[in-house]
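The protein record quoted in full:
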Amino acid sequence: MTPGLELKVIWFDDDVIELRAEGSNGQFAGAADIYVGHQQLRELADTVRGFPAAGDDSREIELGSFDPKWAGGGVRFRLACTDPAGHAVLWVQFRSDRIDASGEPESAAFCMPVDAATIDDFAIALREMRAEAGAVARLRAAGEEAAPGSSSPAVLNVRRIEASTRADVHLHRRRAEVFRGHPGGGNISSSTKCAVGMTMLLVLTFAVAFMPWGEVATDIALPSLPTDDPVLSSHRFLRVPQFPGMPGSRTLVVTLTGWNSYVTALGIHFSSWLVVLAAAGATALCWLKALSIWKVPPGVPFALTACGFLLAGTLLVGLLSAEHAFPGPGLLLTVAAFVGAGIILVKPLRQAHAASKKDRECARVRWGRSRPTPRA
C-alpha cells in the first residue's frame, strides 16, 4: 500500500456509517472497520484543518471504539509538530474487532511524516465525503505523489459500487445494532467524556457548598446578663442554656458552609468559595479543549483541581484536629468530588506523556531517514 491513510465507506444507514480505515508508512500497515456518526467526519475535518497553526501544535481524535466488548474497531489519530519549523508527523493506532490466538484484539500502530498541504487536502476530502458506499478520502504521506486520475489535489475518489447482498446488509445491520449499545454510540471523544465528567462534579461541588461543612462550638461568658433572658434563650445560635460552673455563660455553635468559612495559611485568608471557583475553572478548560477552541495543556485543569482539593482537605484536617469541632457532610462530599475530578484528569496527563514520548520516537525515526548521506 502507498504510504498514507485511507477512510472508505463500506456501509451506512440513517444513524451510523461503517468505515474501513487503512494506513501504512511503507514499513508497517494496519486496518480496522469502525462505526462513526454522520457528523463525525466533519468533526474530523474541522479538527485537522489548518494544522499546523504553530510550531508546537498538536491535534488528536478517536473514531470508533477501543473497548473490545463492543462491535467494530477503533482508530486514534494524533498530529504533532517535530520542530518549530512546522515539520509534522501523524501517529495512527488501529484496533480491530478480530481476536488473535492469545485472546487479545489485533492492533497496529505507526507514524509517518505529513505536511500542511496534504492535511488541508484531507480536510477538504472529509468535508466533501458523502455517506454512500465506496466514498473514499485519502491522506498522503509527505513526499508522496497524488494518485493518477485523482479528481482533485485532495485525492478524493467518490464512486458508486454495486449494492451489497441481503446477507451482507443483514450482517452490517446486526453489527450496527450491537454498536449502538455502546454508551454514547461510541463516538464521544475522550476530551468530551472528561468535560462531561468534570461538569457533573462541578454541579455536585456547587450544590454541597450550601450544605453544612462543619460545626465549631465555643463557650462565651455573659456575666452582666441574666441567664434566663428570653432573648438570649431563644437565639438560634445558643444551643446550651447554661455552662455548668459559670453563671451567664453560653455555648455558641457556628455552622460552616462553603460560603462563610475560610482557611488561613501564611497569614492569608483563603475563602472556601474558591473551591467552587477552582472546579468551575477546571471544567471550563476541559470544555475549551473538547470543543477545539483552545488547546489547553492537560496539567492546567489538574493543577486547579489540586488547589481545590488542597483547600478543602486543609479545612477537613483542621476540623478533625480541633476540639469541639467536627466536619459536616458537605465538606466530605466536596473532598470526594475533587478526588473523582483528579481521577478523571489523570488519564489526559498520561495520554499527553505517552504522546510526547511517541512524538520524540517518530522524530528520531524521521531524522534518521532524512539525514543526508555524507559525500566522499
